[in-house]
Amino acid sequence: MDIKHFYIEKGTGNALILLHGNGENSDYFKGQIDEFAKQYHVYAIDTRGHGRTPRGEMIFTIRQFADDLLGFMDVHRIAKAHLLGFSDGANIAMVFAIQHPDRVDRLILNGANLNAGGVKRSTQIPIEIGYRIARSFAGKSDSAKRNAEMLGLMVNDPNVLPEELSGIQAKTLVIAGTRDMIKETHTRMIADSIPDAELVFVRGNHFIANRHPEEFNRAVLDFLQR
C-alpha cells in the first residue's frame, strides 16, 4: 500500500468503519461518530486523495479504494468490521463486500449506485459535462487533473452488475433519501439483488446522514443491534 490513511478513531467494541462520499472527508460523519462510538469502535477514514489522506501513485478507482480499505484493516488488525458507506463510500463498501465477504460483518449502503445510469439525469448531466471539460484541461493544470479524477469516479465507476450483488453475504441495510439523487427504482433494485437486504427511505435528499442525523442514526443503530 503506497498511502497512509488519515482517520478518526473513537469508542470500543466491534469495529464500525465509516466511508465518506466523493470529494468529501471523514468530517461528513460529524453527526454519527460520537453517537456510534457509544457502542462501537468507530473508524472514519479519509479515502485516497480525499481530506488528509495523500493521493499516492495508484489508479484512482472505486476498486483501488476497496483495496486500500483491505490494507487499512490489515494494518489495524481488524479481522472483520461493520461497514457504513455513503455515496462513493457505499460503492467502495459494496465492492469490498463482494470481494472480501469474510471481512464484513454488517453492511450499510447509503446512496449507492451500480453505475452512472442509477443517478437522476438532472444530477448526472452536469457531472458528465464537467468531467469532459476537466479532462480536456488535465494535461495543462493540476487542479483540472484532480477534478477529472474526482468526476471520473462518478462517470466511470463502480460498474457493478446486479448479479454480482448476490455474492454479498453480509446482512445488509440499503438506505437512501426520499428525494435522493439516486433513482428510487435503482435503489430498490440494489436492495432486491442482495440476499435478504433491508430497505429504508429517510425523508430528505442524498445527504440524509448529514442533514437528518437523528433519523438516520436511529435506522442504522436499529439495524446493527437487531
Explain briefly what this protein structure is.
It contains eight helices and seven strands; from the N terminus they run E-E-H-E-H-E-H-E-H-H-E-H-E-H-H.
Number of helices: 8
The number of distinct structural domains comes to 2
Biggest sheet: strand arrangement = 1-3-2-4-5-6-7
Distance between the termini: 35 Å
Q: Note the overall shape.
A: globular
**What is the top-level CATH class of the largest domain?**
Alpha Beta
Mean pLDDT: 97
- How much helix, percentage-wise, in residues? 25-40%
User: Helices and strands: which structural class?
Assistant: alpha/beta
CATH homolog superfamily of the largest domain: Alpha/Beta hydrolase fold, catalytic domain
The proportion of strand residues reads: 15-25%
CATH architecture annotation of the largest domain: 3-Layer(aba) Sandwich
Q: What is the number of E strands? A: 7
Described by strand count, sense and barrel closure, the largest sheet is:
7 strands, mixed
Which stretches are low in confidence, meaning pLDDT under 50 for 5 or more residues running?
none
What's the layout of helices and strands?
Blueprint: E1 7-10, E2 15-19, H1 33-37, E3 41-45, H2 62-75, E4 81-86, H3 88-99, E5 104-110, H4 121-137, H5 142-156, E6 171-177, H6 184-193, E7 198-202, H7 208-211, H8 213-225
Parallel strand pairs: 2-3, 2-4, 4-5, 5-6, 6-7
Antiparallel strand pairs: 1-3
Structural commentary:
Strands 1-3-2-4-5-6-7 form a 7-stranded mixed sheet, with helices on both faces. It is globular and about 50 Å long. The chain has 8 helices and 7 strands; from the N terminus they run ββαβαβαβααβαβαα. 40% of the residues lie in helices and 17% in strands. The chain is of the alpha/beta class and 226 residues long. The longest helix has 17 residues, at 121-137. It has 2 domains: 7-115 and 160-225, Rossmann fold; 119-157.
